[in-house]
Amino acid sequence: MLTFIGLGLYDERSITVEGREALRAADRAFAEFYTSHLVGASVADLEAYHGVDVEVRDRAGIERNPGPILDAAEDTDVAFLTAGDTMISTTHVDLRLRAEERDIETRLIHGVTAQSAASGLSGLQNYRFGKAVTLPFPYAHGGDDVPESVVDSVEANREHGLHTLVYLDIKADRGEYMTADVAAGMLADGWRDALAVAVARAGSPDPVVAADRLSALADRAFGDPLHLLVIPGDLHHVEADALRELGGAPEALLDAS
Predict the structure, then answer these.
(1) DSSP letters along the chain, please?
(2) Are residues 249 and 132 both part of a single domain?
(3) Which listed residue, 34, 82, 158, 246, has the most CB atoms within 10 A of its CB?
(4) Last residue of a domain, which of 91, 109, 127?
(5) Domain-terminating residue out of 78, 94, 109
(6) pLDDT digits (tens, 9 = 90+) for 214-247
């Protein structure tokens, strides 16, 4: 059996009780941390807390060479670990389909996602979000500006009054995490006075929520990663109240939204 387990958002304790029990019962545990990362825990922390050995695989080891994981899952109980929720990345869907093709039984144990956390922390209603985007580091896509695909998606959501969740690029193997102020500065070139919400360290004991103009957020520091941004669309009055009370949004900016 191959059990996909979402570890949640922050550290070794963010996993669900069901996930913890499945992990401890597994014969082997594999993990990847290139799509997301637990900034509050190291692999050693995971191993010590759960009493397991974790074999970390890089992107090539999951996407191009999944054989060792699938081979092990044919005869033993294998756990596959990711930060957040296990099926957010298409990489994991592909791995599950490969397992099914080999008649390997699969199981999903979900974890908290950044999207649900951003909605809950900010007070923005989850069903009012449109298509999410990922903002890459400029060097990662060979340009100096925001990719056109990101611009088009944000504009399409705004046209329909929908919120946009902006995932910020991480290069965990290089220790690089895009911060909300950097992302806000990049996006402010196109939407300088647009309302945005920075969310830092969702799932940790000290999350931060800050709502202001993109240009203003670009001049603030939000501390340790992980960060993300939300560009709100049309606001329900309860959402506006939440951004004022929970995120410190300026009244004049809310009135204009």
Answers:
(1) -EEEEE-BSSSTT-S-HHHHHHHHH-SEEEE--SS---TT--HHHHHHHHT--EEE--HHHHHT--HHHHHHHHHS-EEEEESB-TTSSHHHHHHHHHHHHTT--EEEE----HHHHHHHHHT--GGGB---EEE--HHHHT-SS--HHHHHHHHHHHHTT-BEEEEE-EEGGGTEE--HHHHHHHHHHHHTT-EEEEEESTTSSS-EEEEEEHHHHTT----SSPEEEEE--S--HHHHHHHHHHH---HHHHHH-
(2) yes
(3) 82
(4) 109
(5) 109
(6) 999 999 999 999 999 999 999 999 999 999 999 9
